[in-house]
Amino acid sequence: MNTSSPNSTIRLYHISLSPYCRKVRLVLAEKRIEVELVEDRYWEPGSEIMRRNPAGKLPVLRMDGRLLAESQAICEYLDERYPTPALLPSSAADRYEVRRLCSWFDDKFANECTRPVMNERVWKKVMRLGYPDSRTVKAGLSAIRYHMDYMKSLLEHRRWLAGDVMTLADFAAAAHLSCLDYISDVDWTHSAEVQEWYAKIKSRPAFRSLLADHLPGVHPAPHYALLDF
Fold it and tell me: How far apart are CA 164 and CA 158, in angstroms?
């Protein structure tokens, strides 16, 4: 088990169905770093999110006497701080591909799929902001199929998304898809290749805490925690 300095507690301020928080959680778990998870319902009075991160975003990792923000920066910091197992390749060209795909999912996939679907179907309900907009949801669901086709095109020539070994790119993609799968909004029959990839990563020990998540008022899909789905 990796640890930080002897008397420090590593603490992650997060929210369970945030793909950015999930990406960091997957890295922490894969590297077997012991961490205390602290849920920050940032929309409620009393949240200290702005004190911890002036950008007002989660996750925030308290580690090494510092508050670390921005999920990609956190993940790369952890990969340098705890180099085994490596989640970024050794060559510059391979690292570029991992970072490109992380950006693809954290920006393009998030804007076209995760954010519109989750905002309408989950966060409006949790935050009591009204009813979902069906047109926004429909557009997001349609975009998921487009992105699955792109992932399929990668997996037809690679064992993992960025190459022949699992990397941070796989965790970024799985973090987004797992949020949508929680509410049963991924049609896994659309691509056998993507389903097989997700089954592999979902079966890793690092994924267990994500499969145990339960957001009050929003129940997970019946198949969500099943490894054979």
Answer: 6
Token code pair at residue 152? 């399929």
- Detail the DSSP E strand segments found in the chain: 11-14, 36-39, 60-63, 66-69
Spatial separation of the C-alpha atoms in residues 218 and 156, rounded to whole Å? 35
Please, what sign has the CA dihedral across residues 12, 52, 18, 38?
positive
Handedness of CA 25, 122, 161, 57 (dihedral sign): negative
CA R_g for the chain: 17
Give the model's pLDDT for residue 21.
Answer: 98
Q: What is the 8-class DSSP label of residue 2?
A: B
Which residue, 140, 198, 178, is CA-closest to 18?
178
Half-sphere exposure of 2 (CA within 13 A, CB side): 17
pLDDT-derived band at 1 (thresholds 50, 70, 90) equals low
Q: Please, which residues have CB within 8 angstroms of residue 83's CB and are 6 or more apart in sequence?
A: none
Report the distance separating Cα 105 and Cα 112, nearest Å. Answer: 10
φ and ψ of 166, to 5 deg: -70, 140
pTM above 0.90, yes or no: yes
Instruction: Give tens-digit pLDDT for 27-47.
Output: 999 999 999 999 999 999 989
Residue 98: alpha-carbon gap to chain centroid: 15
- Tokens 């393009």, residue? 108
Sign of the torsion formed by the C-alpha atoms of 63, 55, 105 and 135: positive
First CA to last CA across the chain, in angstroms?
30
